[in-house]
Amino acid sequence: MELRPISESWHRIESWLRDRERIRELAPPATSQEIARVEERLGVNLHPDHKQLLQGHNGSGSFTLPPYYVVLSSSEVVDAWRIKTDVWADHPYSPYRPQWVPFASDRAGGELYLDVSRPHERIGAHDREGASLLSSHSMWASIPSLVHHTADALESGHMLDRCRRPGDDDFLLWEVFPDAADS
Questions:
Q1: Alpha helix (H) residue ranges in 43-156
Q2: What's the mean pLDDT in 144-161?
Q3: Residues 113-117, mean pLDDT to the nearest whole number
Q4: Distance between CA atoms of residues 45 and 73, nearest Å
Q5: What gap in Å lies between CA 63 and CA 25, rounded to an integer?
Q6: What percent of the chain has pLDDT over 90?
Q7: How far apart are CA 153 and CA 133, in angstroms?
Q8: Residue 65: inside a domain, yes or no?
Q9: At 155, which CATH number?
Q10: I need a labelling partner for 81 at 20 to 30 A (CA). Which of 14, 51, 112, 128 fits?
Q11: d(Cα 55, Cα 137) in Å, to the nearest integer?
């Protein structure tokens, strides 16, 4: 499968939302100044894929990536990183590393992150207790893969890693089927 650029996948997601009159859910793109501010506050360079994600939309509002992750805005990235590093700072066997920069949140303490010390690292997940619950599905290989698979599932209606796309109701939440296979 050939992955498309993040910007193209964002465009496909935008089209799906526009068709449902939900395009307003997405924030405008992050500015280069906002991205630079994140890097300054964290003391690291963001992964290039993370920058492209923010350059598409600086947060996803109520739209979620499967199964229930919102894309964090540039200011939310800083807040989430500070909370995780503060919580785990004094823990002798910390399951969280400062080079793990969050890009999405389940709003219950769980985050998707990229390890900026490893440029070709898979997406990682860190729940509020330090565990990762991601499957081996190829969507978790990278941010471009995650956004590409999300756009495909929205357009096709096919299951994605045991998730069905959001319906046309008031909530843009993916329906999770723990025992289902992808179609």
A1: 48-56, 74-88, 143-156
A2: 94
A3: 90
A4: 16
A5: 6
A6: 54
A7: 20
A8: yes
A9: 3.40.1580.10
A10: 14
A11: 26
